[in-house]
Amino acid sequence: MGSWRKAYGALKDSTRVGLAKVHSDFKDLDIAIVKATNHVECPPKERHVRKIFLATSMTRPRADVAYCIYALSRRLSKTKNWTVALKTLIVIHRLLREGDPTFKEEFLAHSHKRNLLHMANFKDGSSPLAWDCSAWVRTYALFLEERLECFRNLKYDIETERLMRSPQHSAKQLLFRLMGCQPEGLACSNYLIQYALALALEESFKTYCAINDRIINLVDMVNISGSHWYDPVLREAEV
């Protein structure tokens, strides 16, 4: 059964690549997305991810960036395969982390209209492994959703490692989502899950440090400014 599913997945990927070559106005981008998010149970290949980065860079028209978001969200919403779903989320995560600001701005604008990362009902029941990995895919999507919400509310980007405003609910909720990214069952030993988990764990440390540094700064304000600052600052820092 597993071999049949792999063969069927490979056939679907090759068919999509063939269709993109013939029908797509964004041929190179569509092919890169299909190849980066294919059914092979390994992390997205770097050369395909880099092509997607290039297609969403500041030198490209906004229409190209918007199409990339559309293509990724379509891939995410249509698939029933946990590997394809997870690899698509990894590509989105890396674009948010390492891509040009234009992608993040466009993604925020599109997600404000409709929830592009909504995976609450996603499940792949084809095997016990797929079932356990599906649960983690949903958790990972929630983290990415919270990451985006935190940037929208606080203008806080994890990659800057600085939290300029007080650690409000959004930042604390982001840390909560990060801490909840522990895989369970058969997903624990899966390499693709571990790859995505490593991306999330790196950000959990940065987020904790940013919140901690901001609280220390607030405490310093109390010490310098006197007791009349104490109550409002304490409320700001309250967890």
From TrEMBL:
Location relative to the cell: Cytoplasmic vesicle, Clathrin-coated vesicle; Golgi apparatus; Membrane, Clathrin-coated pit
Principal location listed in the UniProt entry: cytoplasm
SMART domains the UniProt entry points to: ENTH
GO BP, one annotated term: vesicle budding from membrane
Cellular compartments per GO CC: clathrin-coated pit; clathrin-coated vesicle; Golgi apparatus
InterPro entries on file: ANTH_dom, ANTH_dom_sf, ANTH_N_plant, AP180-like, ENTH, ENTH_VHS
Domain ENTH intervals: 21-158
Segment forming the signal sequence: none
The organism's place on the tree of life at top rank: Eukaryota
Pfam families the UniProt entry points to: ANTH
Keywords noted in UniProt: Coated pit, Cytoplasmic vesicle, Endocytosis, Golgi apparatus, Membrane
Gene Ontology MF terms: 1-phosphatidylinositol binding; clathrin heavy chain binding; phosphatidylinositol-4,5-bisphosphate binding; SNARE binding
Residue ranges crossing the lipid bilayer per the database entry: none
PANTHER family: CLATHRIN ASSEMBLY PROTEIN, PHOSPHATIDYLINOSITOL-BINDING CLATHRIN ASSEMBLY PROTEIN LAP
Entry protein name: ENTH domain-containing protein
Organism of provenance: Triticum turgidum subsp. durum (Durum wheat)
Organism lineage string: Eukaryota, Viridiplantae, Streptophyta, Embryophyta, Tracheophyta
